[in-house]
Design goal:
Largest sheet: none
Strand content: under 5%
Order of helices and strands: HHHH
Radius of gyration: 26 Å
Shape: flat
Helix content: 55-70%
Amino acid sequence: MTEQSPSPPQDDDAPNGRWPFIRDVLVLQLKLLIGNLHNFILIPATTIAALLDLLFKSGRHGSRFYRVLEWGRQADEAIGLYDALDRHNHEGKGDYTVDALVSRLESAIVREYGKGGATASVKSAIDRALNQLHRGSDKGTARVQEAAQRLKEKAAGPGGKDAA
């Protein structure tokens, strides 16, 4: 069995590094949660607005419904579910998006990290744990491959041919 040389250390803060990836995953989960809450509110709100428009005319037909629908669109754009795909293209959307909020929070964390406080210690501990997990998963993969080979050999039987 040959020993693989350890891969060179990666810059986990690079755009394709571990921490930007973890950030994108966590932000997506937050956005999905907010989006579900948005839909939970929007479904009855649009239904009620449509019923009110049918029962009580005010201006053009559907004015309440379309107003609620526009609020829904604005909220959906603020959530920006797929903004991680075009991160460089989020300028001009304003300061009222989930990404803008997360960006401000992230800036505060980065400032703390730069000071070398508790944030830096937590990041180092998480990096060590994830690196250890990755090293362990490499060993686990080798064990699974060895077990699969043993099963294959047992299935082949004493004659060396696969049992049908």
